[in-house]
Amino acid sequence: MQFKSTAVTFLGHKLTDQGICPDPGKVSAVREMPRPLDKVGVQRFLGMCNYLSKFCPNLSETVLPLRNLVKQNVEINWSDSQENAFNAAKDLIASSTNLLYYDVKLPVTLQVDASDEAIGGVLMQEGKPVCFTSHTLTDTEKQYAQIEKECLAIMTSMKRWHQYLFGKHDIIVQTDHQLLETIFKKPLNTLSRAALKENCAVELESEMVFRAELEQIGLKPAKMSDCTLNRMKEETRKDQTLKCLLETVRKGWPSDKLMVPPCIRPGAFEDASSDCTNSVEERNVGKDSQVSPRC
């Protein structure tokens, strides 16, 4: 028995007077693991990574090439992509961040981000991380618009840390998508995803403040390559439907939906109720999604 000890190792975690960090023995075990030769080996490595995921930002996106190997009817084909993911995951765990102990008396900051393949979040107090989380998107979730992925990141993080956030009214949500503030202020029946509606009904009881600037704590914003962006701009200028949509957005949506050009009418009002007058929020539904031109 030890008294006045400043550090105790417990269930793969090292509890110190400064916070929580992963057990160095667990970190060494991951670092020394050889390259997997079969699905069982890949699953074993992913299991070790998942156990330490609370210390690592964006771990799900990092190990995505490895996770694809354990899918059904997929043969093991170890390429440079898997090798890079394997080494990157080891490095991420080796450089894992020390976490603060959660203090129920302090306000909470929830910082989230979403990419094409995964979503991630970090729970912070006084500008320091308390816990990280990340989640690989399902095939259905990958079809969401980028702003809906950001919304999903918020709701998934709040559900993940329900034990910390339930009943708190001093939660600050930091995201690089200003339009999310508009979405969360809408009536629930104007949200386009049923899954988000269900979660919002419970989670939005907390008061939240959105900030357009995103202070990066290991979270990487989703970026579009210059080549893809330039091509999208070029094809958008050629697409007659999108040209009409852009012109309508610049001038403002008509108060009477019958005045909306027929080519954009179905998408612009798909979420609006047919038996009531459209509100300003409902007329802006079409502004929240990224639309790709025909090419």
UniProtKB/TrEMBL annotation:
Residue ranges of domain Reverse transcriptase/retrotransposon-derived protein RNase H-like in the record = 78-169
Matches recorded under Pfam families = RT_RNaseH_2
Q: Where is this region: Disordered?
A: 271-295
Supply the name of the protein: Reverse transcriptase/retrotransposon-derived protein RNase H-like domain-containing protein
